[in-house]
Amino acid sequence: MSAEASALPWASAPAAGNAIGLYARWTPALDAKIEAAVQALRDASIQHGAGLLQSSSLGVEDMVITDLIARHRLPIDIATLDTGRLHAETLALIPAVQARYSREVAVFSPVAEAVITFVQREGDDAMYKSLDLRKACCGVRKMEPLGRMLAGRSAWITGLRREQSGARGEVAVDEDDGSGTGRRKISPLADWTWAEVWAYVQKYEVPYNPLHDQFMPSIGCAPCTRAIAVGEDFRAGRWWWEDSTKECGLHAKS
């Protein structure tokens, strides 16, 4: 992808302040939540050792988790998916993380031949044609490389929060990931609020995707992400043309 800034129409408009100014509110509970998140990461690291991985979407929640891992010197690998359709702003966070924290970020991409075959057969914007084709696109670009990312791992860390959507309302800090392998999914920010995430970002100067300043709380592939309006659901900007649970399959329950 080009290193130029996103050409999305709302990305060229000046933000009303920034995400920190709009959302950050330190709550009385946040100190305890930070301590609990660090303990959850530490416990997972002790239990799973080299079998543990942070699978980072490079969204703000995952950036907070990366900061916690680095700040507390936890021996946890970090990886991300490059679907081939990410915003330039998202991709720019990979070298930013490596420079800020002196931590390598392993990048997993889809199989080029599979992407070419899919696009030739269904078109470059197949995701808009049907739910099945959108899920097929996610399968090629996300699910297959995720499988390679998690191969041989006994647990993975995510930025899921219960507040993000109804489908995520029961997210546990430590739960079976539904893969049928016994692999665990660790979500140390499960009970954090949006305001608390941004309060942490503000206090510790965590780098984040500037598209969050453009009213995009949940950022995925460029063709499948738009800004949300006041009052819209947190994940309304993902696959906005669909009446769906707004999931790609990475966090679907079995």
UniProtKB/TrEMBL annotation:
GO terms for molecular function: phosphoadenylyl-sulfate reductase (thioredoxin) activity. It is found in: Cytoplasm. SUPFAM superfamilies: Adenine nucleotide alpha hydrolases-like. It is an enzyme of class 1 (oxidoreductase). Its main location: cytoplasm. The active site is at 248 (nucleophile). The keyword Glycoprotein does not apply. Binds 1 [4Fe-4S] cluster per subunit. Its cofactor is [4Fe-4S] cluster. Its EC number is 1.8.4.10. Pfam families: PAPS_reduct. It comes from the Bacteria. Keywords: Cytoplasm, Iron, Iron-sulfur, Metal-binding, Oxidoreductase. It catalyses: [thioredoxin]-disulfide + sulfite + AMP + 2 H(+) = adenosine 5'-phosphosulfate + [thioredoxin]-dithiol. Residues 53-227 form the Phosphoadenosine phosphosulphate reductase domain. [4Fe-4S] cluster binds at residues 137-138, 221, 224. CDD domains: PAPS_reductase (cd23945). Pathway: Sulfur metabolism; hydrogen sulfide biosynthesis; sulfite from sulfate. InterPro entries: APS_reductase, PAPS/APS_Rdtase, PAPS_reduct_dom, Rossmann-like_a/b/a_fold. Belongs to the PAPS reductase family. CysH subfamily. Catalyzes the formation of sulfite from adenosine 5'-phosphosulfate (APS) using thioredoxin as an electron donor. This is Adenosine 5'-phosphosulfate reductase. It comes from Pelomonas baiyunensis. The gene is cysH.
